[in-house]
Amino acid sequence: VLKQYRSEVRLLEQGEVVRQGVIEVNRPLVHRGVAIYQTAWNRDDRGRPYAGFQLSRDPGEPLVWGGCVLFMLAFFAHLLGRSEALLLDRRSGRAVLYPSIGFGGHRRSNWQHLLEQLAQSEPS
User: Fold this and answer.
1) Which of 36, 52, 73, 100 could form a disulfide with 40 if both were Cys (CB 3.0 to 4.6 A apart)?
2) 25-61: b or e for each residue (b if 16 or more CB lie within 10 Å)?
3) What's the CA gap between 35 and 53, in Å, rounded?
């Protein structure tokens, strides 16, 4: 059983070899921004082998990779940053606010001051 097929190719321009290499499945040959993938192989009616190729050009690839890098930077900035929120707990029959401090570690913040003001105010 054949598990891998490889094609030795030469690219010609005006009858002259400008590039040569080996194309395997998932290992394209790239020439002038065009990737040449091997997509099929078989034998014809007379038993001669042949290979199928796909030519692909993706001008937006740098934009996609740039977006991935930007996303990862934003993700790590979010993890390292300090996020705060208030949690509302109604399980005890009354509403109680608790400060929730994120990955930045525990430290006194403006939430403590706001909670003290809320505790001193009269309910409406």
Assistant:
1) 52
2) eeebbeeeeeebbbeeeeeeeeeeeeeeeeeeeeeee
3) 10
Average pLDDT, rounded, for the chain: 80
Residue whose tokens read 């993938």: 37
Per DSSP, 93 falls in state S
124: CB partners within 8 A, 6+ apart = none
How much is the pTM?
0.49
What's the Cα-to-Cα distance from 40 to each of 47, 51, 52, 98, rounded to whole Å? 16, 6, 5, 62
Token output for 105: 């570690």
Q: How far is Cα 17 from Cα 13, in angstroms, rounded to an integer? A: 7
Checking if the pLDDT of 87 tops 70, the result is: yes
Sign of CA dihedral 45, 49, 55, 56: positive
Distance, CA of 108 to CA of 54 (rounded, Å): 61
Q: How far is CA 80 from CA 75, 87, 105, in A?
A: 9, 21, 10
Alpha helical stretches, state H, 14-98: 61-80
> Look-up: residue for tokens 């934009």?
63
